[in-house]
Amino acid sequence: MSRKESELLSRLEQLESKLTERQKKIEELEQRLSVRPASPLMDVAQDVATYEGILDLLVLKGHATDGEIQHSLDTYKSFWSAIVHLLIDKGLLTEKELWCATIAYHHFLRLHGLNSGKSAQELMAERREFIKKISKLEDPFGVI
């Protein structure tokens, strides 16, 4: 075997080794991406039964009447908006609390992404502590 052939063979082996490493990394990434984060609801936007159930529970627990729900649905033209505004109107949560929770969600998504290596429970616990912390601030938007 000539020197040039030997060099080419060596280079080919190096390339094959790099290719094998990259294939392993791709497989690892595909496996990480295939794991969905734990969530009690897979797709709330499509789950009308969940919306209806929440509205029924608001009535059953005495937080709202059918008339209030209908008024909210007529006003906001959306299940989700109606539910959110009912929760605020009834004092079950405040706009500030909702904003703090939204800020915390986006902050943690930017900070950790979808594959942080932490369990969903760990992330939720940290996020909830963060919500408590920023809820005490006069202006929670200052953390953005």
Give a brief description.
The chain has 144 residues and is mainly α. The protein has helices spanning 3-34, 48-60, 66-76, 79-89, 95-112, 120-135.
How is the topology of this model organized?
Blueprint: H1 3-34, H2 48-60, H3 66-76, H4 79-89, H5 95-112, H6 120-135
Helix pairs in contact: 3-4, 5-6
What do these coordinates show?
The chain has 144 residues and is mainly alpha-helical. The chain is 70% helix and 0% strand. Helix 3 crosses helix 4 and helix 5 (95-112) crosses helix 6. It is elongated. 8% of the residues are buried. The model has no long low-confidence stretch (mean pLDDT 85).
Total helical elements = 6
The assigned structural class equals mainly alpha
For the termini, the CA-CA separation is 64 Å
What share of residues are in beta strands? under 5%
Overall residue-averaged pLDDT value? 85
Any idea what the radius of gyration is?
A: 26 Å
Q: Ranges with pLDDT <50 over ≥5 residues?
A: none
* Biggest sheet architecture: none
Q: What overall form do the CA principal axes indicate? A: elongated
Taken in chain order, the helices and strands follow as HHHHHH
Number of strands: 0
Helical residue percent? Answer: over 70%
Q: What distinguishing features does this structure have?
A:
mainly alpha, elongated, 144 residues, 0% strand
